């Protein structure tokens, strides 16, 4: 029972977050303390309009920027689809695994959390990709999630990213960086 408690605590926190989002149901942020990592006021002061504008150049530019990633995560939370980004980030972390002993357990953890049917944070991938990934995890390598990660990346890039660029989260953030200049 004890190993389940952190998991249950994590789930109840997630539920509170989702319920909180429902009560507000707005993707507008006037106070960016919730989305910017570390010290939000200092972060917002350091974020230039040029940097925030560059996030619109490409999805990968957005993902590679610390504050862009945080803003995109906040946006995905309003759409209840943050599991896509969390899976993508888990795969990026997985590719840095150097210990063969940790490879199998990390692969299984990612599969159980994001890929398996009825996973707690199941990502939307097709049956063939799910089955290929299931086979890959049996003999894990650093590339065992590549196809699934690519599908999720493509889904976010074609679907969520354009909505993020039109969202109030992004436009409000740009406005705040521009207001600092005037």
Mean pLDDT: 82
Main sheet record: none
Looking at the structure, the CATH topology is Regulator of G-protein Signalling 4, domain 2
Q: What structural class results from the helix and strand content?
A: mainly alpha
Order of helices and strands: HHHHHHHHHH
Residues in β-strands, percent: under 5%
How many H/I helical runs?
10
User: What's the CATH H-level homologous superfamily?
Assistant: Regulator of G-protein Signalling 4, domain 2
Q: What is the 3D shape?
A: elongated
Catalogue the unreliable spans.
1-31
The CATH top-level class label: Mainly Alpha
Radius of gyration: 18 Å
Named CATH architecture: Orthogonal Bundle
End-to-end Cα distance, whole Å, is 57 Å
Number of strands: 0
Q: What's the number of structural domains?
A: 1
| Helix proportion range | over 70%
Main location: membrane
Pfam family, one: RGS
GO biological process, one term: negative regulation of signal transduction
Protein name: Regulator of G-protein signaling 8
Question: Brief description of this entry?
Answer:
Keywords: Cell membrane, Cell projection, Membrane, Nucleus, Signal transduction inhibitor. The chain contains 10 helices and no strands.
Task: Kindly describe this structure.
This protein is an all-alpha fold. The chain has one domain: Regulator of G-protein Signalling 4, domain 2 (Orthogonal Bundle), CATH 1.10.167.10. It is 71% helix and 0% strand. Residues 58-174 form the RGS domain. It comes from Erithacus rubecula (European robin). One of its GO terms (cellular component) is perikaryon. This is Regulator of G-protein signaling 8.
């Amino acid at each position: 029972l004890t190993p389940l408690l952190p998991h249950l605590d994590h789930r109840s926190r997630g539920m509170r977050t989702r319920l909180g989002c429902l009560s507000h149901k707005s993707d507008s942020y006037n106070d960016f303390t919730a989305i910017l990592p570390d010290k939000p006021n200092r972060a917002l002061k350091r974020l230039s309009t040029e940097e925030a504008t560059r996030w619109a150049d490409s999805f990968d530019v957005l993902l590679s920027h610390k504050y862009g990633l945080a803003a995109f995560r906040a946006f995905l939370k309003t759409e209840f689809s943050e599991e896509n980004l969390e899976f993508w980030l888990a795969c990026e972390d997985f590719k840095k695994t150097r210990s063969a002993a940790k490879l199998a357990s990390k692969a299984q953890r990612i599969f159980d959390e994001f890929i398996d049917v009825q996973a707690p944070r199941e990502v939307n991938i097709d049956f063939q990709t799910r089955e290929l990934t299931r086979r890959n995890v049996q003999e894990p390598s650093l590339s065992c999630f590549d196809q699934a990660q690519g599908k999720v990346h493509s889904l976010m890039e074609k679907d969520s990213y354009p909505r993020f660029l039109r969202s109030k989260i992004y436009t409000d953030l740009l406005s705040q960086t521009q207001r600092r200049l005037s």
